[in-house]
Amino acid sequence: MDQPIPICLRVTQPDIELWERLQWFRQQPGCSWVDQQNNLRSLPELKISRRGAELILGKSRLAFHPNMALIRAINILRGGSDRFLDATQLKAGDSFLDATLGLASDALIGALVVGESGHVLGLEKSPILAAVIQDGLKHLSETSFQARTEHKKKAWTSLVHAASRIDVRWTDHKEFLSRCPSKSIDVIYFDPMFRRTFRESDGIQPLHQWSEHSPLDRQTVKDACRVARKRVVLKERKDSGEFNRLGFKLMSGGRYSSVDYGLIII
Ligand SMILES: C[S@@+](CC[C@H](N)C(=O)[O-])C[C@H]1O[C@@H](n2cnc3c(N)ncnc32)[C@H](O)[C@@H]1O
């Protein structure tokens, strides 16, 4: 892994719970921290407040919040469709590997569907992202949330439970999959940073400066096919050459969507 950029850690008020949260961050592998008094101002900052942890770099701010997952959960619980679920075909009791965790929206939807009898593991190559998202998932139940409708309340409660069931690991999926036993995970999912970025307006934008951008490699897909029991799924830009290059068959549908899903059914 590359040498991490030092990040200045601070809590917004002298509060024992916030200090404990700060100490937890200090122990996360792969990250490098400096204390607030040593910050040279140019360093990024991780601010821990009662509202959660926020990563700040210049004007850019990144925090965990399951906004997108909540909208999708409301729709799913009302019986609506979700293209990620159409592609992954996840069922209660499945084991699901989200090999590109990012902001964990897909992992949350996965955990919602596989339920308590299933298992979700999310891999993230960026140590600071892995730490911020793990912290956010762990503390989701403490996030204040006002639901005006019953649907929204139910979806929020389901997501809080789903969040507590996601295991997060800071690792490169390439290394992880090369060491995984064959036929040990039901569904493996890749949603890498797109080869050509067009996501200016979506919620993934603040992720850019912290995330890993290298393309998915063929050997990793080969390993995923060896490890998966049911299927391997790739999400990419519409018309992306990645589906062809990596051997995925396009799932039909999503005519009006900017993304496509590719499948390798085992
Ligand atoms: C587009 S985001 C995923 C978004 C995610 N599906 C969601 O719902 O929020 C891609 C993420 O994969 C991570 N990533 C890229 N290559 C990786 C690798 N080799 N191993 C683990 N994570 C990787 C990036 O750092 C980034 O956070």
UniProtKB/TrEMBL annotation:
InterPro entries: 16SrRNA_methylTrfase_J, SAM-dependent_MTases_sf
A molecular function GO annotation: rRNA (guanine-N2-)-methyltransferase activity
Enzyme Commission (EC) number: 2.1.1.242
Keyword Transferase: yes
Enzymatic class: transferase
A Pfam match: SAM_MT
Alphabetized UniProt keyword annotations: Methyltransferase, Transferase
Name of the protein described by the UniProt record: Ribosomal RNA small subunit methyltransferase J
Lineage, highest ranks first: Bacteria, Bacillati, Bacillota, Clostridia, Eubacteriales
The keyword Cell inner membrane belongs to this UniProt entry's keyword annotation: no
Organism: Desulfosporosinus acididurans
